[in-house]
Specification:
- The structure is a single chain.
- This protein has 12 helices and 9 strands.
- The chain has a 6-stranded mixed beta sheet, sandwiched between helices. A 3-stranded mixed beta sheet has the order 5-7-8.
- The chain is α/β, with parallel strands linked by helices.
- It has 2 domains: about 200 residues, 2-enoyl-CoA Hydratase, Chain A, domain 1 (Alpha-Beta Complex); about 50 residues, Lyase 2-enoyl-coa Hydratase, Chain  A, domain 2 (Orthogonal Bundle), CATH 1.10.12.
Amino acid sequence: MSFVKYEQDGHLVTLTLDAPARRNAISSFADCDEVEAACRRIARDEGVRCVIVTGADPAFCAGGDVKGMRDRTGIMEADGPYRMRENYRRGIQRIPLALWELDVPTIAAVNGPAIGAGLDLACMCDIRVASDKAVFAESFVRVGIVPGDGGAWLLPRAVGLSLAAEMSFTGDPLNAEQALAARLVSRVVPHGDLMGAARALAARITRNPPGVLRMTKRLLREGQHLSLPSLLEMSAAYQAIAQETEDHREAVNAMLEKREARFEGR
């Protein structure tokens, strides 16, 4: 059975982690392969303008496989620390590299517990929308390990260093309303309305020029580590590209003519 369900509706792709019996835990190299392959498929498809990442109820993602940690199976099967290090590099660490680097905007629709690597997976997305049943925990310390999937880089960028440290040092969870107050998520909706809210948000995104969406996302990503002068140089180059596109001319004409714009990605 496939771990990742890939569904496309026009310009929107929905990726669903589809292993509800194990609460969508990431437990094998094959799971990591599927997430990475889905990201590669999206990256090759110029028609995609937005991606929703969610989980099959009742969980978003329970993180790693705790039984696998105990029994040393799956990704946890290793004959020493050097092999374990390689397992992380060949396994779950491919997911943040693939998902974070997608050019198109991504929305995490967090439908339930997002625990450990599940929280970090949500933080790999640009926007997080939560069900009122969502729970968030950076819980690695509770099982005697560190965030091995980039959480120490991702979580402070989502909630700030102080709260990220508190969550990482205690492993304590946040409920949906606490996550909203911490700005970990941008909105909380009733559980039954989650996917509708995520799709409505995606529709507001996908109606915009696809090339400009991709360049805007790249500027936001690069702005997290570039100096202001360097980002301004990059912004000037991207602006020069944008203003020579047919989509830019269509946007201006549609605004002046008071009509809905139609963007073709040219």
